[in-house]
Amino acid sequence: xxxxxxxxxxxxxxxxxxxxxxxGRLCRLGxxxxxxxxxxxxxxxxxxxxxxxxxxxxxxxxxxxxEGVFTLQVQGDGPVSLVxxxxxSAGHLRAxxxxxxxxxxxxxxxxxxSVSRLLGKGYLAFTVDQGPDTERxxxxxxxxxxxxxxxxxxxxxxxxxxxxxxxAAVLPPANGSGWRASAVMIQRMPANAANAPILMAEDAxxxxxxxxxxxxxxxxxxxxxxxxxxxxxxxxLYHAEQLQCFEAKGLKAQCRCSRDKVVGTLKSLPPADxxxxxxxxxxxxxxxxxxxxxxxxxxxxxx
Length: 303
Fold this sequence. Notes:
Blueprint: E1 11-17, E2 22-29, H1 31-37, H2 44-62, E3 69-76, E4 80-88, E5 92-99, H3 101-104, H4 115-118, E6 122-129, E7 137-142, H5 148-158, E8 164-171, E9 180-188, H6 201-216, H7 220-224, H8 230-238, E10 244-245, E11 249-250, E12 252-253, H9 259-267, H10 271-274, E13 283-287, E14 294-298
């Protein structure tokens, strides 16, 4: 059987069920993860965290209307102190992790170790930045759960946002294939939302309960199956629930760093802070934590 190439593409598919009473997003990541992870020699448990947070950030960003950058960040006091992924409104994705190799040794050998073992105690933050002329939105919640998926669920439970159900899955490279990650999220729309169907309270409650049960039945194998296109997976779940799939949006691994941004940042620092930072070639070299690119700037250029 020849696999459907659309199943292998980095993308987010929007959909609705129940005539629009429930809306959702399904994210699939593959080559984008390989590009992101190739920039660093991450141990497998750390790479799995990055794969999961990348899928979660992608599906969460797709559920918002914004022009700018959506960031999902986790900080903790464990061997992995930081995991962050951000997605632009254009679908550009990047991710980065900071960890202590000495503390990480022996902590976890499985590909998807628990949050408590890797990140310890800390917090998860959602941020939407639409530029200097708008107020930045941020939501923060303590880390509660054994996976990032569970931590994200806690955020929605404790916040005043829409009722949300979420599933995520990660698979490391095997048998010649690269990294794969997927996330599916559904949200219950308010009765007064645009295009929401007019339903009795009991019917709306039953529809949401049924949508959540069906989502809970999805397996990691189905979410990550390269021969199962997203639309076909959604049909398996919701074919009897007035499923409607919309046009998929592509995702691409792309860093936002640039030499111009580095120069601007360095010029904003006091000259005394720049003294002594140049190397033997007279350059101040700044390495992007996300993509690993070295940006060299002559000290004389900053005068």
